[in-house]
Amino acid sequence: MSEIDPITLSVLSGRMEQIADEMDATLFRAAFNPIIAEAHDASHGLYHATSGDTLVQGKSGLPIFVGVMSFAVKAVIEKAVAKGDLQDGDIYIFNDAHVGGTHLSDMRLVRPYFRDGELFCYLASVGHWHDVGGAVPGNYNPAATDVFQEAFVLPPVRLARAGEVNQDIIDILLRNTRLPQSAMGDLNGQLGALDLGIKRMDELLDEYGAVTVAAGLDALGHRAEALMRSELEGLPDGRWEAEDFLDNDGITDEPLNIRVALEIRGDQMTLDFAGSAPQCAGPVNIALPTTVATAYVAIKHIFQDLPANAGVMRPINVLIPEGSLLSAEFPAPTGGYTETILRMIDVIFCAFAKAAPDRVVANAYGTINALSIAGKRSNGQPWVMFSFYGGGHGGSPECDGLNHGNAPISTATIPPMEILEAAYPVMFRQWALRPDSAGAGAHRGGMGAIYEIEVLEDNGAEAFLFGERGRFAPQGIVDGQNAALNQFTYEQDDGWKTPPLASKMRGIKLRKGQAVRLETPGGGGYGKASDRAASDVARDVARGLVSAEIADEHYGNAWREVPA
Amino acid sequence: MSGRMIGVDVGGTFTDVFVLNERDGSASVAKVPTTRPDQSGGFLDGIGREVSDLSEISVVVHGTTAGTNALLERKGATTGVICTEGLRDVLEMRRRDRPRTWGLRGDFEPVVDRRNRLEVPERTLADGSIRTAVDLEAVRAAARQLRDQGCEAVAILFANAYANPDNEVAAVAAVREIWPNPHVSASSEILPEIREFERFSTTALNAYLQPEVSGYLGRLEHALKSRGFDGEFMIVQSNGGVMAVDTACKLPVRTALSGPAAGVIAAGYIATTAGFENVITGDMGGTSFDVSLIAEGQSMLSPQTSIDFGMVVRNPMIEITTIGAGGGSIAWVDKGGLLNIGPESAGSDPGPVAYGLGNDRPTVTDANVVLGRIDPENPIGGKLERLDVEAASMAIDTHVGIPLGLTTLEAAEAILRVANSRMAGAIRLVSIERGFDPKRFAFMPFGGGGALHAGAMLAEVGISRAIVPRYPGVTSAMGCVIADMRQDFVQTINSLVSSLDETTLGKFMQSHADHGMALLDAARTAFEARELSFELDMAYIGQTHTVSVPLTITVEGGKVTPPTKTDIGAAFDSAYRATFGRLLEKGVRRILNLRSAVTGKRPKFDLQTLAPTTSGTVSAKANRPVHFGDAWHDTAIYNRLELPVGTVIEGPAILEQPDTTVLVEPDLQARVDTFGNTIIEPSEDHS
């Protein structure tokens, strides 16, 4: 490996990040489906030619993809190397989550980049397609017991060979989705992003030469590794454990635990998930690549200034027990992977808080609450309103948690209420912060939300919910307290009901004028509640975010003596 | 009309005044320190330096940061909100975002305290039907409560008020009857557009700014008048157009990007006049580098911006992308041994190490000083006798050279290389996000520092030439004098093309036109021309992002002839095809919003009046060594303003003027065009 001067490295680092950013921008602009176009549920990056490790990742894509994409590339490398005929202009495509992580909605495209006849690196693009077949439109099936009920499964196959696109593959894809137009638009966008990446790599290598760029990529990996090691060395040695639970798997009403033992020795760290629940029947399983990627997301939140490449993970050993729900085997369903990885991040934060309390925040609300309300209009037109809902973030060493934030694995924003009301026959009776939903602490959690949605359609509607945190609350850290539970209720002729499985339910029949009500958790508290300034408590009470009784219970009554 | 037209731009450090004498076309500029907290001191001082008799002034146009600062520093008025039952927290909940992707830290305080957000029974549905009529007794009670709680301004924020404003209109009338001042804003008046958070936020921020901004502008107007000024006082809006001062007092939120917008307007005019229709501007200040793109003479507008996390203003604004790489940005080496620039900045106070005002960490300006690119004997800004080159060198050694094993000069070159690379990255991304190839554009640096980096932008981005305006340091003030008068209007329509009520659309268009023309009529300026433009935001059903569809509309005697469904369908098809290449078979077309703009074209002054009057040849006033690449080059120094039209100077050279240094690197040349702009391009020997 040739040496590279630090200034060229600074410049190269910025240039390569920009290539990935430009690929993101290209897809966001071109994509047809709002999950990519608006929620940015997509990502792009550059990957190592032989190991598939992440070299550079775009800044604007979804956080969870930062770690998971290299598995998609590794899968292609395995397949292509086995066949031994990888060519310039080949493009692989697949959605198989057991091979590439996350869930089947995420379509991955992997394209080798050749320079002077030699494989230099891979470029990859992933995006969440609107529909990929299966039992439920949009693929969020809370009762799936295998992948075939979730979506159609495409293993890594060659979409293009030496620059020639294989129309047969596109025909298969488009025949297996309810929304072929949207799928075609997204596919074109992803192909366009890869084309742009190739063009930009050519320009970069023309300017700096392949040897320098390769040396730069190596050096960036080493540098990230060195940074991570120096961070770990600054932390105490020891072993800390944490555990939390999923409500159930949507099939059987039994809690599923996720346990981590975090060990720091010198400049290395181990995350051992031994003792976590075994693979389950319902869709809260996750495949091994997802688990590793999630560890990476948690690490990236804790060490937020570290660069996004595989070097960061070299000093970190992630141990995942075989047969657990964190390494589910094909064809176990994985559609609800978001809930499980949110819980993984929660336990990693809780364990880390014991090692370095000033480096982490308390648990966020911990569930994406995928709520769907669907029906037929009087003219027979079907409608489906599908969205994820927000909650509070955890208190931090510096301040209270953010009210009504997005999930740690995502950067998606929520659609405006008025857009939803204009598009679907519903009315929000309430769209508000949820008082008393945050965990108490020196810095309390952020508030969760209340959404109460009334059906306006004469034909009524049907609702389904895929949520979590109905039985186990988001945790506080450093003696901070837990937040409120997720609470879902729905209106029937004889009053308000709650689902038997707390946070998951299918086929709730609603008449015109009836509503569902989602009350989401806040974030956990940070630090002892007794350390909270009385004036802050008084202000929360005056603002109606914390009730007087709850304030007395958690903070004592000193707040009553001070001005708000 | 005769007299003087004056543009005043109040920046963080300096207040710039540009004076155009309409009688003889001559222009002059003044730069005075900005006064704080009341900017009117510097404002009046600056005008006073150039014009002794204020009655000679026909118009004063002001680019102001008063609104921006009040938002950033949270110094607006105590504001109350009266809103639909169930929706008290929309301002605080935002669109469920977070400040930064990584770290999950940070919280958010909306500008209106929850105690001052009161709900009243009322509800309009998305189709405009009223489900619950507004309870006016409750509205009055809420208004009284807010007044008693010390609110100075109030915003009325009702659900779906874009679809039917009746409930809001009734509520606003009830509040205005009892509210002690004019600071009452209603969401359907400020922004009748779908999306409650964006509409509520814009309206609440408008209310929050009203007392502060109208107070400031009122004081200025009063002070001008008491000194004999009898002309017209106008304010630059974020969209790059100007508005009358009373409109600005009602819609202060439209001044959020007033100052920077004026700069881009001037840059566009200068570039177009000089023959460059496509230009990327780069304004380098103390803490940031602001990039904006002008294609075919038109600056890009973005529909909204976030002034800070969660503080969304939705109004057409000149699109400006900012990165933290200004002259005061600090260079530092991170734990992994990589050199970084910013985002931390020494700003202008204490400023670069060389200023000797207490900062000891090296900045981009310090690198320019150490390499001889800035003359230490003639510091810009006039506060100092001489720049401290030794201190700058020592800081570069300590913080960059020693950690990276580089000599002082190598370290200084490295700082510039990384800073230039980041600036070039911003230029590339701004153009690519818009679908343009930056190589087709010219680069126009303005602000004090940009012209030092022009050559680097040519090399890094592959741009063929840069154009440095004759007075780059007062571009924004000049923009105030150039900008047209413009008002924007929006109305959500939300209808399929097939079921559109053409009469209703026509009524909205007519009302926008009437309202806009009335504002032009009220102005005392004589307009060269008036323009009306209409656009629809449209998409296929199911699609997220809309396409702007310009309509060709005939207006005769002030009467708008509304388009037919067929016209609209055809206009959509052509706009959609231009954006995405092909139409969607069987796609159902939908209209979301109507956007109208009314523009009064102000007479333009002839830029040639700014051109140099000198002729013949001018020789260098001095020579000094300047470092480029890896060697010192003996470099000729010229007084830029003395260079006659047509002069060509081969690099390496430095052209100096009181507030700007233009750097001409080896292998580049500088040419003075007929307007006094300096065109930097590859030397003919090398091109």
* Backbone shape of chain B: globular
Distance between the termini of chain A: 63 Å
Computed structural class of chain B: alpha+beta
Which structural class fits the helix and strand makeup of chain A? alpha+beta
Helix content of chain B: 25-40%
Strand content of chain A: 15-25%
Could you tell me the radius of gyration of chain B in angstroms? Answer: 27 Å
Helix content of chain A: 25-40%
Description:
The complex is a heterodimer of chains A (564) and B (687). With 564 residues, chain A is an alpha+beta fold. In chain A, the strands form four sheets. Chain A has a seven-stranded antiparallel sheet with strand order 2-1-5-4-3-6-7. Chain A has helices spanning 6-30, 34-37, 63-83, 97-100, 167-175, 180-208, 210-233, 288-302, 337-355, 417-423, 534-542, 548-555, and strands spanning 42-48, 54-57, 91-94, 106-115, 118-128, 157-161, 164-165, 238-246, 256-265, 268-272, 316-319, 370-376, 382-387, 426-434, 448-455, 461-466, 487-492, 495-497, 504-510, 515-519. In chain A, a hairpin with a 2-residue loop joins β17 (487-492) and β18 (495-497). The radius of gyration of chain A is 24 Å and the shape is globular. By secondary structure, chain B is of the alpha+beta class. In chain B, the strands form ten sheets. A six-stranded mixed sheet of chain B has the order 3-2-1-4-11-12. In chain B, strands 13, 14, 15, 18 and 21 form a five-stranded mixed sheet that branches. In chain B, strands 6-5-9-10 form a four-stranded parallel sheet, with helices on both faces. Classes of the chains: A alpha+beta (564), B alpha+beta (687). At the A-B interface, α1, α7, α10 and β14 of A face α3, α7 and α12 of B.
Features:
heterodimer, A: 564 residues, alpha+beta, seven-stranded antiparallel beta sheet, five-stranded antiparallel beta sheet, 12 helices, 20 strands, 23% strand, globular, B: 687 residues, six-stranded mixed beta sheet, five-stranded mixed beta sheet, 16 helices
